[in-house]
Amino acid sequence: MNFLSLHDVTKTFGRVTAVDSISLEVEEGELICFLGPSGCGKTTLLRLVAGLEEPDTGQIFLVDEDLAKTAERDRNFGMVFQSYSLFPNMSVAKNVAYGLECRKWKREHIRTRVVEMLNLVHLEDQVDKLPNQLSGGQQQRVALARALAPKPHVLLLDEPLSALDAKVRMVLRGEIRKLQQELGITTIMVTHDQEEALTMADRVVVMNRGVIEQVGTPVEIYSDPATSFVADFIGTMNFLDARAGDDNTVRLGEIDIRCANWHLHPRPDQPVRLAVRPEDVRLMDGPDDAPNSVKARVEWVEFLGSTYRIDLALDAGEGQKLKTEFSANVMRERNISKGMHLPVVLPAELLWVYEA
Amino acid sequence: MTASRTWSGARLSESQIKFIFTLLAAVPLLVFVLYPLWAILQKSFIVADGAWGLDNYALYFNEPKFVAIIGNSFAVSISATLVTIVLAYVFAYAMHRSAIPFKRLWMLIAMLPLFAPSLVQALGFQLVLGRNGLVNRTFGTEIDIYGFWGIFLSNTLYALPHAILMLSAALAVADARLYESARMLGGSGWRIFWTVTLPATRYGVMSAVFVVFTIVITDFGNPMVIGGDYGVLATEIYNQVSGQANFSLGAVIGMILLVPAAVAVIIERQVSRRQTAAITEGSVPLAIKPSRGLDAAMLTCVAFVCLAILLIIGVVVFASFVRLWPYNMSLTLNNYDVDVQGGYSPLWTSIWMSSLTAIIGVVMVVIAAYVIQKLANSFTRFLYFLSILPAAVPGMVLGLGYIFAFNDPVNPIYLIYGTVLMLAINTVYHYHAQGFLIATTSLKQISSTFDEASAMLGGSFLHTMRKITLPIIWPTLISLGVFFFMRAMVTLAAVIFLVTPGNNLAAVSVLLLDDSGETTQAAAFSTLIMAVVIAVLLVFQGLLRLFGIRNVSLVS
């Protein structure tokens, strides 16, 4: 049985459908990430789970219990808000104790729990400070301690790192993940930052316009994007306009390219989109007519440190552009420079075909 | 695994509590704002035989004397408004755009008229320029201040602090980038003023125009003291009701006075809504550079305004220590030994009534603001309308409405009719709009995610209010309380119809003392009112300082 499950949940605001009949199963102890561009419905979905919004239709279950009748305050879900939302009139310790006081814990239990939680987030020396005396990262740690103190069933994180600067974000990313694994707490995190999602999550839910595009492990959604939206949203992806050919091939101009991953069943000659990641494009070693090889010209060279970014214009297919990435070593060996001709190979097993 | 176990454990459910709070906000607004207005409207249309008709209005408009009063009201209100706005703009400009010294002191002096009932300015002008005034007695002149000029001068002084506060807010913020580019393009000082400064503050000026107009046209105290034969709408209501016991005609005049006041308030609300977007995120605050010519001119204007205020208020305080103005100018404390009109008891009643007003006002206004903000639906939008409606209702109209509505043994409110509690409730709803807007602004500054954070941690509605909302907004509650106290100490217009000989108020006492020729005792009573208001202000400002709160101003 799944720990938290959403069945056909829909939420509209006026004429906007923020969440469109979404179903999802969350397993106990996993960190699942709602990822998508702003306005995709990920925050609304989190707020529906939290009970801060009521679904128009559909149900949300915690184990086998329908949460429809359970108000947010009785769900025992911990939540960390984007803006921290620490109570400005209370000290760090008071903030952490708040949920415990609401649950009428005994005073000595509260005291030990607060100390325990502040140790956990390394803020034991900030007990009596007020929120505005803390840095952004410290405030977010307090918010985390406050959410976790009452031993919630589920931890909800709403863009927890977006208000912090890059360095603090990197540190907290690791800390939150470590804490989550130590406590084994089921966690849902909302983010628009794919790097955050890929590095922290057990599974990622990619959302767009109120629906789920793909659910999978970070490796799955990166290496096998289910839709062209996911392919485009996660990492960098080249899209080439092509037409469906025979026998698992597409026609790129005059050249037949064999492809291994098909996300549609096209009619012959139907326009399709051929997708390949920059780092998957290979330099050609063999003869000119090797399978899946295309002729191209170097249009732009950009130095990125250990790698170079090369923009190619393909001879075939009316000069479509192809972004590629090569290591500095390869660049030296091949002596690649702007304007030169450079044949490349598009490896069949690393090509995806999507609807045009 | 059970999530439905509730530890918030309230005996009442959340929805029940919300329903109770909505009732707490709605019922008083319906009873104490809507019903009295309905009562006066009805009274103005009900004719002799109890049917509805326009007879009362016909009676009014067929009498040239009454029609002339409308003209008088507009003439004096428009002139006083224009002069007030010009003076206040110059004053506020000097405060925020020039480098003159002693800004805090000037500002403090300019606020003095706020601490006195609206008749004190008239009293001051009477002492200086009246029949037995200093000027006429000293120089043998026969200046006649009673009438248009008296009302015009005293109301200009009375409305000045309100206008200065509003225009200060408009002039306090400026985007230096605009001024820099104007100078780079070669604009002269004058040109920059006309093309940058004035347009940037136009909404503030328009708001101030309509607010001042409302203050002046609805004012009762000053025209009562110094109006002479120059009748205006506010005093005519009083004459008809208290003098002739002609309640229907009073109601008609009330409705006539309601129209311009309501129109001005509606326009002001529309204008002030546009004002907000003037300053954007990238704005650079303007740095004030000294400029000898401008600063000298500004200092002269500011000193002139402050001198006028000090003179008029000061002469009242001075007269309170004089034996018989202006014949025997020897100093005495006898005027403070008030022996008519119930002696000191009106002052104690005023203080007691003002304290009640402060407490009831804060509670009611905060409940209304809280309910309207948290439960946004069509009913609370109606409550919002009722909450700010009193801004458009002249005190005389509200007071008269209370007579029609509650001076009736059948009405349960009759039980408190004629009590101090009735006076306090009347004052709360007279100033409800301003208090409500202060409370709303303050609540808006509390991020709504505090509520959500509290709820996620298991806090109930009441727990959140007690532990988070109230502790954050308490300095505002103090300033709200002081606001209501101040207004209640100096209010005259609404309560004039509701006081009884046993429950007289200080401001009303001043009017009666002045009316019976006891000018110096009236001055003494006025001085006492101002002293109480200023003392309360100082005590609470000190209290806030003690708790380290510096961003809450008690003069608003």
Structure notes:
The complex is a heterodimer of chains A (356) and B (556). By secondary structure, chain A is of the alpha+beta class. Chain A has 2 domains: 4-232, P-loop containing nucleotide triphosphate hydrolases (Rossmann fold, 3-Layer(aba) Sandwich); 237-355, RNA polymerase II/Efflux pump adaptor protein, barrel-sandwich hybrid domain (OB fold (Dihydrolipoamide Acetyltransferase, E2P), Beta Barrel), CATH 2.40.50.100. In chain A, 26% of the residues lie in helices and 33% in strands. Chain A has 9 helices and 22 strands. In chain A, the strands form 5 sheets. In chain A, strands 6-7-8-3-9-10 form a 6-stranded mixed beta sheet, with helices on both faces. In chain A, strands 13-12-11-15-22-14 form a 6-stranded mixed beta sheet. In chain A, helix 2 crosses helix 3 (107-120), helix 2 runs parallel beside helix 4 (136-148) and helix 3 (107-120) crosses helix 4 (136-148). The longest helix of chain A is centred in the middle third of the chain and has 18 residues, at 166-183. The radius of gyration of chain A is 25 Å and the shape is elongated. Residues 1-10 of chain B have low confidence and may be disordered. Helix content of chain B is 70%, strand content 1%. Chain B has 2 domains: 13-41 and 338-556, MetI-like (MetI-like fold, Orthogonal Bundle); 63-175 and 201-319, MetI-like fold (Orthogonal Bundle), CATH 1.10.3720. With 556 residues, chain B is an all-alpha fold. A two-stranded antiparallel sheet of chain B has the order 1-2. Classes of the chains: A alpha+beta (356), B mainly alpha (556). Chains A and B meet through strand 6 and helix 2 of A and helix 20 and helix 21 of B.
Entry summary:
The complex is a heterodimer of chains A (356) and B (556). With 356 residues, chain A is α+β, with helices and mostly antiparallel strands.
